[in-house]
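User: Is it possible to get a 3D structure for a protein together with its bound compound? The compound here is acetylphosphate. I've pasted both below.
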Amino acid sequence: MGKYILAVNAGSSSVKVTFYTCDNPPRAIADAQVSGITAPPPTFKYQHGETKVKDELKEKLNTPQDAFKYILERCFKDSELSEVASERDVAYICHRIVHGGEYHEAVEINDDTLHHLEKLEDLAPLHNFSALEIVRFCKKELPSVKSITCFDSAFHQTLPDCVKTYPINQDIAKANGLRKYGFHGISYSFILRSVAQFLGKPQEQTNIIAMHIGSGASMCAIKDGKSVDTTMGLTPLSGLPGATRSGDIDPSLVFHYTSEAGKLSPASTKEMHISTAEEILNKQSGWKALTGTTDFAQIAVDKFPSEAHKLAFDIVVDRMLGYIGNYYLKLGGKVDALVFAGGIGEKSALLRRTLVEKSQCLGFAIDAKANENGPRDDEVVKDISQSSSQGPRVVICQTNEQFEMAYTTIQSRA
Ligand SMILES: Nc1ncnc2c1ncn2[C@@H]1O[C@H](COP(=O)(O)OP(=O)(O)O)[C@@H](O)[C@H]1O
Ligand SMILES: CC(=O)OP(=O)(O)O
Ligand SMILES: [Mg+2]
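Assistant: Yes, that's possible. Here is the predicted structure of the complex:
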């Protein structure tokens, strides 16, 4: 059997792959990513030891599956990465699957599990379809390698009934699996373990308000190491706005926006079905719709380039602040830490400063310099609380979904 693990994080516009050893904990040996699949030309980024490559690609890579094939070929052929040169060197491929339905933990792919996951494809077509295309590719082209699927929804299986149930006809809800599932759970699991370790507390006694803020953004209330509420729902659309996602809106809005709401969107294919409303709210909304950019670094700046940028920033702050208050109450005020994670949470000092200043009444306070400096590359958790603060800690956690998948795989097979 091979000695290495490939962890694959497939999104709609990028595919990230990290190669790990099978040590406990796993050690990363190389990182490769293709981004810009939906906004060509795609770019290829690769890092292995001291080698760093960034290429604009001439190849047409139309789908995440094409991008994954490209990454695999380049890495297998790279003489500097001789450890992983063919299927024989790989023990496991771990795939991030956003929607895992009722699955509580990672599963190995076989005909049964794949069939079950294919039935869930329509619940999260924008995420699951790409990831499953890669799973199907691996099963066919790398048949000796075990594929493990890790689910973003699994961490939230602990949601109480009153949180996960939508007040609609329960026969229909049960028959169609219509409930709150919650996502970004692979990241929350990494965050919980890392922050608990940092605080010197057992995970089962750790209470945090965690924020995974990237182009997809969510928050999670973790009580005694368990998810008790989270902002995303049946799909990753609800809760906070994202780069191109609306987040919560009044559901009737879609019918006033367009009379085509229920029809299939032109982006649908024979295998993947999305309605026009889903396409608009997932792909044509969020801060891109307000400002024209998906890049939050251009929005979260001290001097806003336009009123629209300021509005986008204020909306994000308003929605996040609402959930901080909500989750503070749900944790009964017993909060060990407020945790910023995800590309934006980890990098935007302005967003952190603004939110913490507005949450002062709950006892949160930050050290301005520690916040501005952010974490070192090798610092997984950084405390940015004011040193004199008696209140809950405020920390940044550099989350790592690929590591979490490799780690879970090693733990379950140790
Ligand atoms: N300094 C910064 N300030 C604010 N946002 C930033 C900064 N640097 C990167 N970002 C934003 O982080 C987001 C990407 O976060 P990430 O978690 O990697 O996203 P995803 O995995 O959902 O694609 C982008 O919107 C990017 O613009
Ligand atoms: C669940 C989800 O929204 O994932 P991402 O942030 O990677 O789009
Ligand atoms: Mg992400």
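DSSP finds 14 helices and 14 strands in the chain. The chain has a mean pLDDT of 94.
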